[in-house]
Amino acid sequence: MSKTAIVGLGKTGVSCLRHLYGKTDLIVVDSRENPPAGAESRKLFKEVDYRLGINRLDCLGIDQVIVSPGVGLDSPLVAPAVARELPIKTDIDLFCENTKAPICAITGTNGKSTVTSLVGHLLETAGYDVGVGGNLGRPALDLLENNNQLYVLELSSFQLEYMSNFEFSGASILNISEDHIDRHGSYELYVSIKQKIYRNSSTCVFNRHDPLTKPLANGYHVSFGADDPDTGNWGIRGDWLVLDENSKTEQVISVNDLPLKGKHNVLNVLAAFALARVMGLNTKSLTSGIETFGGLPHRCQYVTDRSGIRFYNDSKATNVGASIAAIKALGSRKEKNVVLIAGGDSKNANLSPLKDPVSRHVKAAILLGKDAALMEAEIGSLVPTVCVESIFEAVKEAVKLSISGDVVLLSPACTSLDMFSSFEARGEEFVESIKQVSI
Q: CB–CB of 108/267 below 8 Å?
């Protein structure tokens, strides 16, 4: 029997372990002595060679390596396999090898969770049996249990970095801005990794406002954008989201009737419409489907209105581009109305693009986390800033600086792991803090 090494025992690693158990001899490797799923995995999958708390993989006798997204190619747990030219795969490669159902794949720096969920929702409300997951929600391999008609997968750059199987029915890069440079080493490499999603895809859906999302190879391409589209593409004409087919414009839904607000979400909806159309839906199904979509937690999510102050949880904004989109979506054109709560681990990203939207829309900024000082250095000359130690303190200060009609926006532009276990935990603490603070 062949021998497979699974590197990383998190959520993805466990899904690989579950999928491969009994089909190959297994070695599970993790640099942590007690990874999150270690104890449970030992109980469920006993006939496995667990090598936990080690810093280097011994490749002797190993035929292939399955690498979890959180582990880099330069890791000592992977580098020996690369040097030996062993087959290196991801859970998505295994997924693609084990289904013949059509797959829609979505990536991008921002908005991919919203678009993935929306495409799945549109297909499901139209009567399709859909599996939705990948980097969002359930690991891809766990979706195979249901034998769905088709699948919608969110893919991160970490997953795309290793992948070799890209036979998708529809694929899209929604947008690209600087992110994960600490992992990939350069912006150029990050962009090239994102572009891999188009390889061998039947239809490529790209953002015509963002040249870096345009497929480099020839093939069938569909674009979306917040302008008047040409033939075969999606866009906006007047107040309507439209599809131009053979120079005939079909109005799908008014911008004013969309459940998701903000220019960035209009683009997200257009991308989802284009992808769902590629996967088989007509425009009537798109219209009826979008009307029942409620959005996702922690993505510019409205929380409450207290004394005329509206609170929004955008904890998922773990990079600068996402925060810019939220600030623009909620900012007033007439006056500065946003009290911004931001900060965390910037991952060495360039924070200067925040200057323009902050100067236009933000009346004060409450900063916290590892790189609060770096953020203050970028925007401190533009708006009053206060540095705090906790989300609760941030909410207290934000309330002091707000009046009726203002927006308190948690949109960190940074990852959460310097202070929290996840962006979800950060968002949940924000919501709880709002309940506790007197207004």
A: no
